[in-house]
Amino acid sequence: MARIQSIRGMNDILPSETPVWQYLEGRVRDVLSRYGYSEIRFPIVEHTELFKRSIGEVTDIVEKEMYTFEDRNGDSLTLRPEGTASCVRACDQNGLLHNQIQRLWYTGPMFRHERPQKGRLRQFHQIGVETFGMVGPDIDAELILLTARLWRELGISDALTLELNSIGNAESRANYRQALVEYLTGFKDQLDEDSKRRLETNPLRVLDSKDPNTRELLVAAPVLSDYLDEVSRSHFEGLCARLDVVGVSYKLNPQLVRGLDYYGLTVFEWTTDKLGAQGTVCAGGRYDGLVEQLGGKPTPAVGFAMGIERLVLMLETLGVAPQEHAQADIFIVSVGEQADIEALNIAEQLREAMPTVKVLINCGGGSFKSQFKKADKSGASLAIVLGEDELQRAEAALKPLRAGQGEQQMVALADLLSTISKNYF
Ligand code: ATP
Ligand code: MG
């Protein structure tokens, strides 16, 4: 019978890969906790309406990337394509937003029906950060500083550039929209199909077009920064001033708008040229209007999400992923039923007495020779050898597996633990 394969663009993360994932996740958790952030967890499936209303009907994600289905009750549900909308829903529903300050993070799989390629999957993973209740640019700056610190600690900051823009508040964007529509209408015939349609429905989305022709036309288009009102301008200047003081460099990118509708004021992306076309590893911005748009009270908010697959690729490409640890420190070789039982017992005693030492038992018979092969492969530095003869004398052999650890020796079972902890670990 034919084997059933995984779904295209939905990858298994194999035991050889998980150490890098765990390392990355561990460093992110550590940095976030030092900045006072708490973890939140929410479901992977939500009502479709949540994403339509937040991300925007006329965006790539909602128009063509969502995994949407009817459940058995006929409700339209969607596998989350991102975390911000769900996070807002969860916080509002549980009363975490009104008159409160929240610094939150989450991690997990996201789902988008895109064309799978390097750094672009259909099930991918993000670590996201969302903050609520803080209106000034300090928190925008904090989020950027936090990510900058993370890149430094991971050893990848030289390969990353911070791109920064302000897309202004709703009023600024409305003024700009008018100017952009006037400009683009003159070139309507030359726009790609999506952009033509968006010119009517959601013109700012045209700025996010990947079509080369459209991009060419956008070079001479009016720029948003010329349309920022005083409030938007001073928020952005406040952010830039803070980054300057701490010494985080950035590149102003007036074309940066992000692919989701809820953003306003600050938007930013960390990009690299080390991953080919999929160069954005972390992206975010301010979304002061979203909570209200989803039915809550007006609440200032800012957040970002990083793509774990792309960061893992970066760690590997730059050669800064941690060395894989050995599977075991001690391997117990045992031949014969009695020896197998004693091996299990000794292993438990070792784990009890030395919680940081990794102990592997053989499980499944085999000759001394084949078991020593397994011991070697496990990376253990010490083998404990138990055979019928040794057991008869209530002894075990200790055999160092690496050079420089001395000769094999016989030890009474009663002294095994103390000898090992004194002489080997
Ligand atoms: P892109 O422009 O690369 O499509 P995006 O703007 O759609 O990214 P966001 O929704 O802002 O991405 O998601 C934040 C981060 O999540 C991205 O910067 C990227 O690192 C990661 N990401 C997004 N989509 C995918 C995907 N399909 N596969 C892998 N990682 C992804
Ligand atoms: Mg995308």
UniProtKB/TrEMBL annotation:
Instruction: Spell out the GO cellular component terms annotated for this protein, sorted alphabetically and separated by semicolons.
Output: cytoplasm
Q: Which GO terms describe its biological process?
A: histidyl-tRNA aminoacylation
Listed InterPro entries: aa-tRNA-synth_II, aa-tRNA-synth_II/BPL/LPL, Anticodon-bd, Anticodon-bd_dom_sf, His-tRNA-ligase, HisRS-like_core, HisRS/HisZ, HisRS_anticodon
Its EC number is: 6.1.1.21
**Domain Aminoacyl-transfer RNA synthetases class-II family profile as annotated: residue spans:** 1-355
Going by the entry's taxonomy, the superkingdom of the source organism is recorded as Bacteria
Question: Which reaction(s) does its UniProt entry say it catalyses?
Answer: tRNA(His) + L-histidine + ATP = L-histidyl-tRNA(His) + AMP + diphosphate + H(+)
Family matches, as PROSITE patterns: AA_TRNA_LIGASE_II
Q: Entry's SUPFAM superfamilies?
A: Class II aaRS ABD-related, Class II aaRS and biotin synthetases
Question: What Pfam families does the annotation carry?
Answer: HGTP_anticodon, tRNA-synt_His
Q: Which Gene3D superfamilies match?
A: Anticodon-binding domain, Bira Bifunctional Protein, Domain 2
**Residues noted as binding L-histidine in the record, renumbered to the chain:** E82, G83, T84, R112, Q126, E130, R258, Y262, Y263
Which keywords has UniProt assigned to this entry? Aminoacyl-tRNA synthetase, ATP-binding, Cytoplasm, Ligase, Nucleotide-binding, Protein biosynthesis
Q: Where in the cell is it found?
A: Cytoplasm
Offer an example of a GO molecular function term for this protein. Answer: ATP binding
What is said about its interaction partners and assembly? Homodimer.
Q: Which family does it belong to?
A: Belongs to the class-II aminoacyl-tRNA synthetase family.
- Protein known as: Histidine--tRNA ligase
Which species is the source of this protein?
Zhongshania marina
Quick one: which gene encodes this? hisS
